[in-house]
Design goal:
By secondary structure, this protein is an alpha+beta fold. It has one domain: Zn peptidases (Aminopeptidase, 3-Layer(aba) Sandwich), CATH 3.40.630.10. The chain contains five helices and six strands. The strands form two sheets. A four-stranded mixed beta sheet has the order 1-2-6-3, covered by helices on one side. A two-stranded antiparallel ribbon has the order 4-5. The longest helix is centred in the C-terminal third of the chain and has 16 residues. The mean pLDDT is 94.
């Protein structure tokens, strides 16, 4: 037996009040600050199974942005960062999720020869902003995803948009190594 889990939706135009909230949130987005956060995240190594440092950084970052946040340990080297904006309880909870782990470490002793003869700048855990682009290990995937999720929640918080449901930010560790 197959259960149909589709949710039927009907697009509706935004009310003038909703349009105002959206514009207030958009006004909170600063591309330079986004690039800076992404570069900071790139500079925190977070290979799979070793995401604790980036999660702890993100918990503090979200707290400073006005979100309730906490660190959720998995083991002594990895864990998740969770942020929360509570609504009035009359609506559903929405989870914005992004992974925090990278496939490589940025350390030659672990990543070579898999990455070639040497580790290129875009595969090092050093965030560099160059010509408007963030360069470094995981700058686009997953760290830009993390940046966007955090920035969206931060913008909603700063714009003081009244939420019905709760907005959760889940920034998840990728798991462990097979030999653990």
């Amino acid at each position: 037996m197959t259960t149909d889990l589709r949710v039927v939706t009907q697009p509706k135009p935004l009310s003038s009040e909703q349009r105002t909230w959206l514009e207030r949130a958009w006004a909170q987005i600063d591309p330079e600050k986004l690039a800076q956060l992404d570069a900071e995240l790139v500079s925190i190594p977070s290979p799979t199974g070793q995401e604790r440092a980036i999660a702890e950084f993100l918990v503090q970052y979200m707290r400073s942005a006005g979100l309730d946040s906490f660190y959720q340990p998995i083991d002594d080297q990895q864990g998740n960062a969770v942020g929360r904006l509570r609504g009035d309880g009359t609506g559903p909870t929405l989870l914005l999720y992004a992974p925090t782990d990278t496939a490589f470490t940025g350390r030659e002793e672990e990543d070579l020869p898999w990455l070639g003869q040497a580790i290129r700048p875009d595969l090092r855990p050093v965030g560099i902003i160059e010509n408007g682009y963030v360069i470094g290990l995981g700058a686009e995937n997953p760290k830009a995803y993390v940046t966007c999720v955090v920035a969206a929640a931060q913008a909603i918080s700063a714009a003081r948009i009244p939420l019905q449901g709760t907005l959760l930010v889940g920034l998840g560790a990728g798991g462990g190594y097979a030999d653990q």
